[in-house]
Structures are given as structure tokens and as C-alpha cells.
Amino acid sequence: MFPVSPEKARVLAETMRRLGVREDDLDEQFVRSGGAGGQNVNKVSTCVVLRHRPSGIVVRCQRERSQALNRFFARRLLLEKLEARERGVAETAARERARIRRQKRRRSRRAKEKVLAGKRAVSEKKAARRSPAIEE
Is residue 81 classed exposed, middle or buried when 0-12, 13-18 and 19+ CB atoms within 10 A define those classes? Predict the structure, then answer.
């Protein structure tokens, strides 16, 4: 289907199956690319615009001069975006759990000593600012 190694095509198909993305859910358009590529990009519609109907994600790929390669890369990019969206919820929850765990964790002896040393330094600085006590 794509001009890549059978292994890469198999991995792509496997990822699509795992994420529940079907070829029927994809709208594919071909438009003219811009940039380097000379006469080829000016005459041939090598840029691929891929839209996943259920999620509404749109991906545009004009990385290569070949339309077939751009189709492959567009699918890969779309799957990465879908995975990132899926992971986003899990990552947010994991980040929150890690933050709470850090807050509850006890400080090491060295960290406590550093905090106390800082407090002592501030205390001494303030003591030096005080006016001298009047002796009777």
C-alpha cells in the first residue's frame, strides 16, 4: 500500500487497530505542496490532508516529494496525535499524584539542615539590625 518497508506498514496497521482507527473513518485530500521540490511540487498534488471524522483531528503532511510517502507519514502523525490526546488524561492524573506524593514526602536530614541554616542566617541578619539594648 505504501512505499515503505513491510515492517513499517505492519506497525502502522497494528497501531491503527489498537487505537480503533479505520480507513473508513479517514477523509483524505490531496493538494499542491509548497516549498522546495521544483517542478514536481508545482504540478503534482503531493501534500496530503487527512481528517479523522470521529475525533475531528486534521493533519497536513508535505514532508516528502512523493504523495505515497506523505500518505504514510500523515497517518503516522494522526495516530501520534490521537495517542497524545488519549495519554493526556492519564498523564495529567499521574502528574497530580506525583505532586501530592512529593508534598507528603519527608525531607532528608541534609535538606532539613539547609532549611535551618537559612533560617539561622536570616535570624542573625535581623539581630544585627536591631538597636543595641540599653544597659542600666
Answer: middle
Residues in the chain: 136
Q: How far apart are the first and last CA of the chain?
A: 100
Q: Where are the domains of the chain?
A: 6-97
State the Cα–Cα distance between residues 63 and 12, nearest whole angstrom: 18
In tens digits, the chain (136 residues) has pLDDT values of 788 899 999 999 999 999 999 999 999 999 988 877 778 778 888 899 999 999 999 999 998 888 999 999 999 999 999 988 888 877 888 888 999 998 888 888 999 999 999 999 999 999 999 888 777 6
CATH of domain 6-97: 3.30.160.20
Strands annotated E in 32-136: 47-52, 57-61
